[in-house]
Amino acid sequence: MNVWLPSIKYPKPQMRLNFFNQAVERIEAIPGVQAAGFTTVLPAGAGFDQNSFEIQDRPKPPGEELDFDTYAVSTDYLRAMSIALQHGRQFTEQDREGAEQVALVSETLARRIWPGEEAVGKHLRYVNREEEKPWITVVGVVGDVKQYGLDREAPMAIYLPMAQFPNSAMTLVVRTSGDSQAMVAPIRQQIRAIDNDQAVFQIATMEQLLSDSIALRRFSMFLLGLFAALALLLAAIGIYGVISYTVALRTHEIGVRMALGAESRHILKMVLGRAMFMAAAGVGLGLAGALLLTRLISGLLFNVSATDPVTFAGVSLLLASVAFIACIVPARRATRVDPMTALRYE
Asked: How far apart are CA 220 and CA 214, in angstroms?
Protein backbone atom coordinates (compact mmCIF):
# COMPACT_ATOMS: atom_id res chain seq x y z
CA MET A 1 0.00 0.00 0.00
CA ASN A 2 1.18 3.54 -0.74
CA VAL A 3 1.81 6.05 2.02
CA TRP A 4 2.53 9.58 0.87
CA LEU A 5 3.24 12.14 3.59
CA PRO A 6 2.15 15.73 2.81
CA SER A 7 5.10 18.11 2.82
CA ILE A 8 3.07 20.77 4.66
CA LYS A 9 2.56 18.48 7.64
CA TYR A 10 5.95 16.73 7.40
CA PRO A 11 8.34 19.40 6.06
CA LYS A 12 11.51 17.97 7.64
CA PRO A 13 13.16 14.68 6.63
CA GLN A 14 13.50 13.58 10.26
CA MET A 15 9.74 13.94 10.75
CA ARG A 16 9.13 11.61 7.82
CA LEU A 17 11.66 9.10 9.07
CA ASN A 18 10.05 9.08 12.50
CA PHE A 19 6.67 8.34 10.92
CA PHE A 20 7.96 5.49 8.75
CA ASN A 21 10.03 3.97 11.57
CA GLN A 22 7.06 4.03 13.92
CA ALA A 23 4.87 2.49 11.26
CA VAL A 24 7.27 -0.42 10.72
CA GLU A 25 7.61 -0.99 14.46
CA ARG A 26 3.86 -1.03 15.01
CA ILE A 27 3.04 -3.16 11.96
CA GLU A 28 5.67 -5.80 12.75
CA ALA A 29 4.06 -6.18 16.18
CA ILE A 30 0.77 -7.30 14.57
CA PRO A 31 0.23 -11.08 14.98
CA GLY A 32 0.81 -12.83 11.65
CA VAL A 33 3.20 -10.20 10.28
CA GLN A 34 6.64 -11.62 9.52
CA ALA A 35 8.33 -8.48 8.21
CA ALA A 36 7.48 -4.98 6.99
CA GLY A 37 9.41 -2.31 5.14
CA PHE A 38 9.21 0.75 2.91
CA THR A 39 10.54 1.40 -0.58
CA THR A 40 10.34 4.21 -3.10
CA VAL A 41 9.77 1.85 -6.04
CA LEU A 42 7.92 -1.45 -5.90
CA PRO A 43 8.68 -4.40 -8.22
CA ALA A 44 6.02 -4.98 -10.88
CA GLY A 45 4.69 -1.51 -10.18
CA ALA A 46 4.26 1.40 -12.56
CA GLY A 47 7.02 3.61 -11.18
CA PHE A 48 10.76 3.74 -11.73
CA ASP A 49 13.68 5.90 -10.63
CA GLN A 50 16.95 5.98 -12.56
CA ASN A 51 19.96 8.13 -11.73
CA SER A 52 23.39 8.68 -13.24
CA PHE A 53 26.42 7.56 -11.25
CA GLU A 54 30.17 7.61 -11.55
CA ILE A 55 32.51 4.92 -10.29
CA GLN A 56 35.57 5.79 -8.22
CA ASP A 57 38.94 5.12 -9.91
CA ARG A 58 37.18 4.35 -13.16
CA PRO A 59 37.05 7.04 -15.87
CA LYS A 60 33.72 7.49 -17.53
CA PRO A 61 33.69 6.96 -21.29
CA PRO A 62 33.06 10.26 -23.14
CA GLY A 63 29.40 10.91 -23.75
CA GLU A 64 28.29 7.83 -21.82
CA GLU A 65 26.25 7.83 -18.63
CA LEU A 66 25.98 5.01 -16.11
CA ASP A 67 22.27 4.95 -15.27
CA PHE A 68 21.17 2.65 -12.46
CA ASP A 69 17.78 1.98 -10.92
CA THR A 70 17.80 3.58 -7.47
CA TYR A 71 15.58 2.60 -4.54
CA ALA A 72 15.54 4.10 -1.04
CA VAL A 73 14.42 1.36 1.34
CA SER A 74 13.98 0.79 5.06
CA THR A 75 16.09 -1.68 7.01
CA ASP A 76 13.62 -4.60 6.82
CA TYR A 77 12.48 -4.10 3.23
CA LEU A 78 14.78 -6.77 1.78
CA ARG A 79 13.63 -9.29 4.40
CA ALA A 80 9.99 -8.49 3.69
CA MET A 81 10.54 -9.05 -0.05
CA SER A 82 12.83 -12.09 0.46
CA ILE A 83 15.64 -10.46 -1.53
CA ALA A 84 18.66 -12.53 -0.56
CA LEU A 85 21.95 -11.07 0.56
CA GLN A 86 24.77 -12.60 -1.52
CA HIS A 87 27.86 -10.84 -0.09
CA GLY A 88 28.62 -8.28 2.57
CA ARG A 89 26.03 -7.01 5.01
CA GLN A 90 22.55 -5.54 5.02
CA PHE A 91 21.52 -2.11 6.27
CA THR A 92 21.52 -1.55 10.03
CA GLU A 93 20.21 1.13 12.36
CA GLN A 94 23.70 2.67 12.31
CA ASP A 95 23.24 3.62 8.64
CA ARG A 96 21.62 6.92 9.51
CA GLU A 97 21.98 10.59 8.61
CA GLY A 98 25.45 11.85 9.37
CA ALA A 99 27.09 8.44 9.06
CA GLU A 100 29.04 7.22 6.04
CA GLN A 101 26.67 6.86 3.10
CA VAL A 102 26.28 3.21 2.08
CA ALA A 103 24.49 1.18 -0.58
CA LEU A 104 23.61 -2.33 -1.63
CA VAL A 105 23.92 -3.29 -5.29
CA SER A 106 22.31 -6.02 -7.33
CA GLU A 107 24.22 -9.01 -8.68
CA THR A 108 23.82 -7.78 -12.24
CA LEU A 109 25.31 -4.39 -11.40
CA ALA A 110 28.21 -5.92 -9.48
CA ARG A 111 28.97 -8.35 -12.31
CA ARG A 112 28.87 -5.73 -15.07
CA ILE A 113 30.60 -2.84 -13.31
CA TRP A 114 33.23 -4.84 -11.41
CA PRO A 115 33.68 -8.08 -13.42
CA GLY A 116 35.87 -10.56 -11.60
CA GLU A 117 36.21 -8.19 -8.63
CA GLU A 118 34.62 -7.93 -5.20
CA ALA A 119 31.97 -5.20 -5.26
CA VAL A 120 31.88 -4.79 -1.48
CA GLY A 121 34.07 -1.84 -0.51
CA LYS A 122 33.82 -0.11 -3.89
CA HIS A 123 32.62 3.48 -4.16
CA LEU A 124 30.21 5.34 -6.42
CA ARG A 125 28.32 8.61 -6.30
CA TYR A 126 25.58 10.60 -7.95
CA VAL A 127 26.48 12.64 -11.00
CA ASN A 128 25.51 16.22 -10.24
CA ARG A 129 26.65 19.17 -12.32
CA GLU A 130 25.76 21.72 -9.62
CA GLU A 131 27.60 20.19 -6.68
CA GLU A 132 29.93 17.31 -5.94
CA LYS A 133 28.11 14.54 -4.13
CA PRO A 134 29.88 12.39 -1.50
CA TRP A 135 31.09 8.91 -2.34
CA ILE A 136 28.78 6.04 -1.40
CA THR A 137 30.37 2.82 -0.13
CA VAL A 138 29.00 -0.52 -1.35
CA VAL A 139 28.50 -2.69 1.74
CA GLY A 140 26.66 -5.64 0.19
CA VAL A 141 25.44 -7.43 -2.93
CA VAL A 142 21.86 -8.68 -3.13
CA GLY A 143 19.95 -10.90 -5.53
CA ASP A 144 18.47 -9.59 -8.76
CA VAL A 145 14.82 -8.55 -8.98
CA LYS A 146 12.83 -8.54 -12.23
CA GLN A 147 11.64 -5.03 -11.57
CA TYR A 148 9.84 -4.41 -14.87
CA GLY A 149 8.19 -7.76 -15.52
CA LEU A 150 8.78 -11.48 -15.68
CA ASP A 151 9.77 -11.31 -19.32
CA ARG A 152 12.47 -8.66 -18.90
CA GLU A 153 15.98 -8.89 -17.52
CA ALA A 154 16.70 -7.67 -14.02
CA PRO A 155 18.07 -4.11 -14.10
CA MET A 156 21.28 -2.86 -12.53
CA ALA A 157 19.96 -1.65 -9.20
CA ILE A 158 21.20 0.29 -6.18
CA TYR A 159 19.47 0.14 -2.79
CA LEU A 160 20.02 3.10 -0.48
CA PRO A 161 19.06 3.31 3.21
CA MET A 162 15.91 5.36 3.72
CA ALA A 163 17.47 7.02 6.79
CA GLN A 164 20.20 8.58 4.62
CA PHE A 165 18.02 9.29 1.57
CA PRO A 166 14.57 10.18 3.00
CA ASN A 167 11.51 10.49 0.81
CA SER A 168 7.93 11.51 1.49
CA ALA A 169 6.30 9.11 -0.99
CA MET A 170 6.86 5.48 0.00
CA THR A 171 5.28 2.09 -0.60
CA LEU A 172 4.72 -0.18 2.38
CA VAL A 173 5.27 -3.91 1.89
CA VAL A 174 4.22 -6.46 4.50
CA ARG A 175 4.97 -10.19 4.50
CA THR A 176 2.35 -12.18 6.37
CA SER A 177 2.00 -15.80 7.44
CA GLY A 178 -1.74 -15.93 6.79
CA ASP A 179 -4.34 -14.26 4.61
CA SER A 180 -2.87 -11.00 3.32
CA GLN A 181 -6.26 -9.36 2.79
CA ALA A 182 -7.16 -9.94 6.43
CA MET A 183 -4.17 -7.81 7.45
CA VAL A 184 -5.32 -4.66 5.64
CA ALA A 185 -7.57 -3.38 8.42
CA PRO A 186 -5.03 -3.88 11.28
CA ILE A 187 -2.26 -2.27 9.21
CA ARG A 188 -4.44 0.72 8.34
CA GLN A 189 -5.37 1.01 12.01
CA GLN A 190 -1.71 1.21 13.03
CA ILE A 191 -1.03 3.88 10.40
CA ARG A 192 -3.91 5.98 11.73
CA ALA A 193 -2.71 5.46 15.29
CA ILE A 194 0.37 7.49 14.32
CA ASP A 195 -1.54 10.06 12.24
CA ASN A 196 -5.31 9.85 12.12
CA ASP A 197 -5.40 11.96 8.95
CA GLN A 198 -2.91 9.86 7.00
CA ALA A 199 -4.41 7.86 4.15
CA VAL A 200 -3.15 4.66 2.53
CA PHE A 201 -4.11 3.75 -1.02
CA GLN A 202 -3.50 1.38 -3.93
CA ILE A 203 -3.68 -1.65 -1.65
CA ALA A 204 -2.84 -4.92 -3.39
CA THR A 205 -1.04 -8.21 -2.94
CA MET A 206 2.12 -8.99 -4.88
CA GLU A 207 0.20 -11.81 -6.57
CA GLN A 208 -2.27 -9.25 -7.90
CA LEU A 209 0.50 -6.93 -9.09
CA LEU A 210 2.29 -9.76 -10.89
CA SER A 211 -0.99 -10.92 -12.41
CA ASP A 212 -1.74 -7.40 -13.67
CA SER A 213 1.76 -7.08 -15.11
CA ILE A 214 1.18 -10.05 -17.42
CA ALA A 215 -2.52 -9.42 -18.13
CA LEU A 216 -1.94 -8.39 -21.76
CA ARG A 217 0.30 -11.39 -22.43
CA ARG A 218 -2.16 -13.69 -20.70
CA PHE A 219 -4.97 -12.42 -22.95
CA SER A 220 -2.76 -12.85 -26.03
CA MET A 221 -1.89 -16.39 -24.98
CA PHE A 222 -5.58 -17.13 -24.34
CA LEU A 223 -6.42 -16.12 -27.90
CA LEU A 224 -3.47 -18.07 -29.29
CA GLY A 225 -4.45 -21.07 -27.19
CA LEU A 226 -8.05 -20.85 -28.40
CA PHE A 227 -7.00 -20.64 -32.05
CA ALA A 228 -4.47 -23.45 -31.52
CA ALA A 229 -7.18 -25.66 -29.98
CA LEU A 230 -9.49 -24.96 -32.94
CA ALA A 231 -6.65 -25.70 -35.36
CA LEU A 232 -5.90 -28.94 -33.54
CA LEU A 233 -9.57 -29.93 -33.66
CA LEU A 234 -9.79 -29.16 -37.39
CA ALA A 235 -6.59 -31.11 -37.99
CA ALA A 236 -7.98 -34.09 -36.07
CA ILE A 237 -11.27 -33.97 -37.99
CA GLY A 238 -9.40 -33.65 -41.28
CA ILE A 239 -7.07 -36.55 -40.51
CA TYR A 240 -9.96 -38.75 -39.42
CA GLY A 241 -12.04 -37.91 -42.47
CA VAL A 242 -9.26 -38.37 -45.05
CA ILE A 243 -7.85 -41.61 -43.63
CA SER A 244 -11.28 -43.07 -42.93
CA TYR A 245 -12.36 -42.32 -46.50
CA THR A 246 -9.11 -43.73 -47.89
CA VAL A 247 -9.59 -46.99 -46.01
CA ALA A 248 -13.25 -47.19 -47.02
CA LEU A 249 -12.21 -46.94 -50.68
CA ARG A 250 -10.19 -50.13 -50.21
CA THR A 251 -13.23 -52.18 -49.21
CA HIS A 252 -13.26 -53.89 -52.62
CA GLU A 253 -9.54 -54.70 -52.34
CA ILE A 254 -10.09 -56.04 -48.82
CA GLY A 255 -12.91 -58.25 -50.11
CA VAL A 256 -10.67 -59.68 -52.85
CA ARG A 257 -7.89 -60.42 -50.35
CA MET A 258 -10.30 -62.10 -47.96
CA ALA A 259 -11.85 -64.12 -50.79
CA LEU A 260 -8.36 -65.36 -51.62
CA GLY A 261 -7.84 -66.46 -47.99
CA ALA A 262 -6.25 -63.46 -46.27
CA GLU A 263 -6.80 -63.38 -42.52
CA SER A 264 -8.39 -60.44 -40.72
CA ARG A 265 -5.25 -59.69 -38.67
CA HIS A 266 -3.15 -59.51 -41.84
CA ILE A 267 -5.65 -57.11 -43.38
CA LEU A 268 -5.63 -54.93 -40.29
CA LYS A 269 -1.85 -54.92 -40.18
CA MET A 270 -1.64 -53.92 -43.84
CA VAL A 271 -4.20 -51.12 -43.54
CA LEU A 272 -2.76 -49.78 -40.30
CA GLY A 273 0.77 -49.86 -41.66
CA ARG A 274 -0.03 -47.76 -44.71
CA ALA A 275 -2.27 -45.32 -42.81
CA MET A 276 0.19 -44.81 -39.96
CA PHE A 277 3.00 -44.28 -42.46
CA MET A 278 1.00 -41.41 -43.93
CA ALA A 279 0.25 -40.08 -40.45
CA ALA A 280 3.91 -40.30 -39.41
CA ALA A 281 4.96 -38.40 -42.53
CA GLY A 282 2.42 -35.69 -41.77
CA VAL A 283 3.48 -35.44 -38.12
CA GLY A 284 7.13 -35.22 -39.16
CA LEU A 285 6.45 -32.37 -41.56
CA GLY A 286 4.31 -30.65 -38.93
CA LEU A 287 7.04 -30.91 -36.31
CA ALA A 288 9.58 -29.41 -38.67
CA GLY A 289 7.28 -26.48 -39.41
CA ALA A 290 6.44 -26.00 -35.73
CA LEU A 291 10.09 -25.92 -34.71
CA LEU A 292 10.61 -23.03 -37.12
CA LEU A 293 7.42 -21.07 -36.41
CA THR A 294 7.10 -21.39 -32.62
CA ARG A 295 10.07 -19.05 -32.17
CA LEU A 296 7.74 -16.25 -33.24
CA ILE A 297 5.78 -16.62 -29.97
CA SER A 298 8.74 -17.29 -27.68
CA GLY A 299 8.37 -13.80 -26.18
CA LEU A 300 4.89 -14.68 -24.91
CA LEU A 301 6.00 -17.76 -22.99
CA PHE A 302 6.92 -17.95 -19.31
CA ASN A 303 8.97 -20.87 -17.97
CA VAL A 304 8.21 -22.81 -21.17
CA SER A 305 10.60 -22.99 -24.09
CA ALA A 306 9.47 -22.53 -27.68
CA THR A 307 10.58 -26.13 -28.32
CA ASP A 308 8.99 -27.68 -25.24
CA PRO A 309 9.37 -31.47 -25.76
CA VAL A 310 6.27 -32.33 -23.70
CA THR A 311 4.03 -30.16 -25.89
CA PHE A 312 5.49 -31.47 -29.13
CA ALA A 313 5.25 -35.09 -27.98
CA GLY A 314 1.69 -34.65 -26.66
CA VAL A 315 0.34 -33.12 -29.87
CA SER A 316 2.15 -35.70 -32.02
CA LEU A 317 0.70 -38.57 -29.99
CA LEU A 318 -2.77 -37.03 -30.17
CA LEU A 319 -2.71 -36.71 -33.96
CA ALA A 320 -1.21 -40.18 -34.33
CA SER A 321 -4.00 -41.56 -32.12
CA VAL A 322 -6.62 -39.85 -34.27
CA ALA A 323 -5.05 -41.39 -37.37
CA PHE A 324 -5.02 -44.82 -35.70
CA ILE A 325 -8.71 -44.60 -34.79
CA ALA A 326 -9.53 -43.25 -38.25
CA CYS A 327 -8.14 -46.35 -39.95
CA ILE A 328 -8.87 -49.06 -37.37
CA VAL A 329 -12.63 -48.43 -37.28
CA PRO A 330 -13.38 -48.72 -41.04
CA ALA A 331 -10.77 -51.46 -41.44
CA ARG A 332 -12.36 -53.64 -38.76
CA ARG A 333 -15.78 -52.96 -40.25
CA ALA A 334 -14.53 -54.00 -43.69
CA THR A 335 -13.06 -57.28 -42.40
CA ARG A 336 -16.47 -58.25 -41.01
CA VAL A 337 -18.20 -57.81 -44.37
CA ASP A 338 -18.97 -60.93 -46.34
CA PRO A 339 -16.34 -61.29 -49.14
CA MET A 340 -19.03 -61.55 -51.83
CA THR A 341 -20.65 -58.34 -50.59
CA ALA A 342 -17.26 -56.63 -50.53
CA LEU A 343 -16.57 -57.77 -54.09
CA ARG A 344 -19.77 -56.04 -55.23
CA TYR A 345 -18.83 -52.84 -53.26
CA GLU A 346 -18.57 -49.66 -55.33
From this structure: 10
Domain limits of the chain?
2-213, 216-343
The residues, any chain, with a CB within 8 Å of residue 278's CB and separated by 6 or more, are 243, 323
Question: How far is 334 from 258, CA to CA, in rounded Å?
Answer: 10
Residue 59 is given by DSSP the state P
Rounded CA-CA distance 186/103 in Å is 32
| β-strands 66-73, 157-161 pairing | parallel
In order along its 346 residues, the chain shows pLDDT tens digits of 999 999 899 999 999 999 999 999 999 999 999 999 999 998 887 667 888 888 888 776 666 678 899 999 999 999 999 999 999 999 988 988 888 999 999 999 999 999 989 999 999 999 876 778 899 999 999 999 988 877 778 889 999 999 999 889 999 999 998 888 888 999 999 999 999 999 899 898 888 888 887 788 788 888 988 998 898 888 888 878 887 787 777 777 777 777 777 777 887 788 778 778 887 888 888 888 888 877 777 766 666 777 788 888 888 888 888 878 777 777 777 667 666 666 665 5
d(CA 38, CA 27): 12
* 3-state secondary structure labels for all residues of 231-252: HHHHHHHHHHHHHHHHHHCCHH
pTM: 0.70
* Phi, psi dihedrals of residue 32, rounded to the nearest 5°: 95, -10
